[in-house]
Amino acid sequence: MNVLNKRFPEGFLWGGATAANQMEGGFHEGNKGLNIADVLPGGKERLNILMQPGFTFEIDEDKYSYPNHEAIDFYHRYQGDIALFAEMGFKVFRMSIAWTRIFPNGTELEPNEEGLAFYDRVFDELHQHGIEPVVTISHYEMPLNLVKQYGGWRSRELVTFFERYAKVIFNRYQKKVKYWMTFNEINGALHFPIMSMGFSIQNEETKHQDIFQAFHHQFVASALAVKACHEIIPDAQIGCMILFAPVYSYDCHPDNVMYALEEERVFNFFCGDVQVRGEYPAFIQRYFQEHNITLEIEDGDLDIIKEHTVDYIGLSYYMSQTQMLDKSGADVVPGNLLQGVKNPFLKASDWGWEIDPAGLRISLNKLYDRYQVPLFVVENGLGAYDTVEADGSIHDDYRIDYLRSHIEAMAEAVEDGVALMGYTSWGCIDLVSASTGEFSKRYGFIYVDKHDDGSGTLERKKKDSFFWYKKVIETNGTELD
């Protein structure tokens, strides 16, 4: 029996994580407006399509499928799903609110009551089972109208719309939600701005200007949301959320070491420095100069950012990245969204994501050393092909092995002195993959009978990992076999 001597803190927040656009479905129900996810085509070419100049943000059902439209139909099946989460013993459930359920176009002055009432029902159901919601305010699904009318987060106008949205949900759910996060994987926009910032790269010469101006608007909006949350729900905690992937130098050549350092600072730490420390870091100024970036910063912006920093850092961790200055001739990892080179010491998932549990311990130590605020691993998991046996069972030992090794890494980080709040495994129930729009890329403890061709009954089945994770939670992470 694999029993850890190290203990996670009492009250550690075990649970699972999802996003509205990847699980809810009901994309036209309850007076919901269209969002970015509703126009994302399904399939492995999803990101390639989205990153091409000229993406129209239109639905073309003759050419593409749109799996997010129905997803796994949590919109109608949330009661049964929450009961399954409770059976596993979840302390928390990380979810997001679909912005367009509250403000269908993003610009309305009054919210949509049907959308607000839906989340009332979900939160009430969670609390009836003793589960605290952890809510992401914006998770890759901004209103499509804000993309088309304003060009996404390049426009300063979105700060006002986001602040109005945040205040509405804080006021409505102040007695039901005490853990919040502002923007999901905010730094991921450096590589794929379309889902979180609402625009595709049209011009290589101006892409850095566009992305970092959009970042500034999001930083101001996030700080205003933190301010409103602290005023409306004084006992709540609100964090930022970062896609963290530690950067290794391919070798000990100083040029590669310096390149890895620069990559890590800009990707992993820039957004955290602004949202946690409350100011733009010194290193970014040279980056701005070298990429011809000049930010439009209004009077008072920097004060708002400085005065309203987050309470904790939420992070997703799936992989590390290995970098070298000259990649010509190098073996680039095909599935790695961060464009790293192959690490000879690591194996990869079915989708080419390198598996590196030690990197999670490294990440947690780096973050805590730098910021000294509580950390919360709000995404981590293995996307894999699952097989349903003749008797209906799903034997996913590969997923258990993956999660076990990462939980062990977290335990080591806690022993190192890291203040870790909790862990929510990504895709605790199968859902639509954000990067590929596939159902076959499964993460869950709960299997959903839904397939890439649109077929399936949506029946839920417990995988072997369901029972394993239940034991992990029961023992507060000390028993992992």
TrEMBL record:
A GO MF label: beta-glucosidase activity
Lineage: superkingdom: Bacteria
UniProt keyword Transit peptide, yes or no: no
GO cellular component: cytosol
Location of the active site: E379
BP-aspect Gene Ontology terms: carbohydrate catabolic process
InterPro entries with a match to the protein in the record: GH, GH_1_N_CS, Glyco_hydro_1, Glyco_hydro_1_AS
Alphabetical UniProt keywords: Glycosidase, Hydrolase
Endpoints of the signal sequence: none
UniProt xrefs under Gene3D superfamilies: Glycosidases
Family: Belongs to the glycosyl hydrolase 1 family.
The protein, known as: 6-phospho-beta-glucosidase
Species annotation: Evansella caseinilytica
